[in-house]
Amino acid sequence: YCTSGSHVLGVAVAKSVHQNLKEFADAELFGPIGVSISSWSNDRLGRTMGGTELSMKASDMVKFGMLYLNEGMANGKQVISKAWINESTSEQAVLNEWDVLPGANGYGYYWWRRTTHGHQAYVASGYGGQLICVIPDLHMVITTTCIVDDRNRGRSEIRRLHHFIDRIVALRE
Fold first, then answer.
1. Residue 150 clears pLDDT 70, i.e. is over it
2. What is the Cα 60 distance to its own chain's centre?
3. Element (H or E) spanning 30, and its range?
4. Residue 153, pLDDT above cutoff 70
5. What 8-state DSSP symbol labels residue 43?
């Protein structure tokens, strides 16, 4: 995805709901699933950065993944429509090969698609190895966090995280 394009989308959403993007997301998404976002940066004009700089704890990443696993339901409430969950995780762009995503089979709306041991997975990928992996038929959400910097190998480390996911899935079978 394009970070600046995502930011423009966030600005458009904020304008259409007449509310700061973080405040809107807190009220309509994060609050209902029990997530408290402590840090989400703003641009020079004070607009929430729609494409980057959202800090989440691993436990909050799991809650977000569970929202997708449960087809948009959380705490007895439909937070995101089931139709959007299905559309956003469906293949919207062809992606059959990528060096950091073994088993790549498309890209949805902000969700990378891949197979692992024959199971369809959806992966939200943040900077430096922050991953939320949802595997619906196994009723599984896996999150990873790491820091990619000069001490590790960047893209190869992200690929390694996917190999850990593959090993977890293999153990589940």
1. no
2. 11
3. none
4. no
5. -
Distance, in Å, from the CA atom of 24 to the CA atom of 102, rounded to the nearest integer, reads 35
Structure tokens belonging to residue 38: 């402590």
All residues at 6 or more sequence positions from 63 whose CB lies less than 8 Å from its CB, including other chains: 33, 34, 35, 74
pTM here? 0.92
Using CA atoms, how far apart are residues 103 and 94, in angstroms rounded to an integer? 13
**C-beta of residue 145 within 8 angstroms of C-beta of residue 134:** no
What is the token pair recorded at 169? 């899935």
Q: Specify the long-range contacts of residues 98-106, CB closer than 8 Å, at least 24 apart.
A: 99/155, 99/159, 100/155, 100/158, 100/159, 100/162, 101/159, 101/162, 102/159, 102/162, 102/163, 102/166
| Cβ neighbours for 24, distance < 8 A, ≥ 6 positions apart | 13, 14, 17
